[in-house]
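Researcher: Structure prediction, please.
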Amino acid sequence: MRNSIFTIMKKELARFFGDRRMVVSILLPGILIYVMYSFMGSAMGDAFGVDEDYIPSIQAVRLPESASMLMDAAELPVGEAAAVEEAKAAVTAQELDLLLVFPEGFDQAVAGYEAGSGLPAPNVEIYYNSASTNSAFVYQSVAGLLDAYEAQMVNKFDVNAGGEGYDLATAEDAAGSFFAMMMPMLLMVFLYSGCAAVAPESIAGEKERGTIATMLITPIRRGDIALGKILALAVISMISAASSTVGTVLALPKMMDGVTDEMSASIYSVQDYLLLAAVILSTVLVLVTLISILSAFAKTIKEAQTYAMPVMLLAMGMGITGMFGGGASQDLAAYCIPLYNSVQCMAGVFSFSVLPAGVGITVGVNGLVTLLGVFVLAKMFNSEKIIFAR
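Model: Predicted structure follows.
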């Protein structure tokens, strides 16, 4: 009996380890989870800070000697503001990170203030823009410095007393920041879902049913078959993604009801939507191409769906970077990376910081990737070992 058990075990293990497809399907999830979470950790670490070589732009009105020494010790350069309202406008326009406004004779007022007197303490005003990652980070740094100094002085002054009116982000900025954080990830999920719903059935499904052989013996060129399939799948995927996107855009304001009255997709222009449509179309072509190539390796639809898992995690991982990126990258090299470039363009459109040149590069790169994929898929159609694998 024991020998029989070992015989069965040996047979099953040999079958498993002798089939590379099964080995990959078992090991792949763990590898992808490690890669994805490592990537997410790195992205989140970069999201809540600024570049190491970033020099913040800070201006101050009536900067006292004590605060000047604090800023110098923290290596935060501070310039003199010419006019308060102009500096506020610069913060609102995200041209200036921070504006500090100190009361007249701050050091003398702090020295002469009695905490138990019941009189209002000297108040330091810090104006910032929460829609800007750099501004928000610099605000936290400077506020922390002043709070620590205030504690040393036994609460002899206040920082942003009342807490209202110091965040100069406009309602449009706030809405744009929210959409830029949420929509790229949601769009990538919707686009992948639409592609994954149709691509495996179109290729792996035909292999499973045995109908692909009939198509391949026709006089149609293999490249035309591959391109025709990809374009048809892209159209179907676009319809699915468009439906999900429209539903999400219409639902987001309802979800934010009571939080803000300015959450509306109407803040974007027709040009914004046209740029977004071009990016989405090129992204769908890339996703359909990748899933189609992986499906051509599979023998069944179920197996094709397993092989498509890396594309799903890749799409989700790229989408997540949009949540922590603080808007579109200003480095044109970032737009040469397929899928990542799409997320950067989406984030740029939604945050009003889109680079038209970046969109052009993205559409071009994604188009080249699609053409390369069509060439690869056509070569796979020519391989009987791949198409008729059992």
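Model: The chain is about 65% helix and 5% strand.
Researcher: Thanks, that helps.
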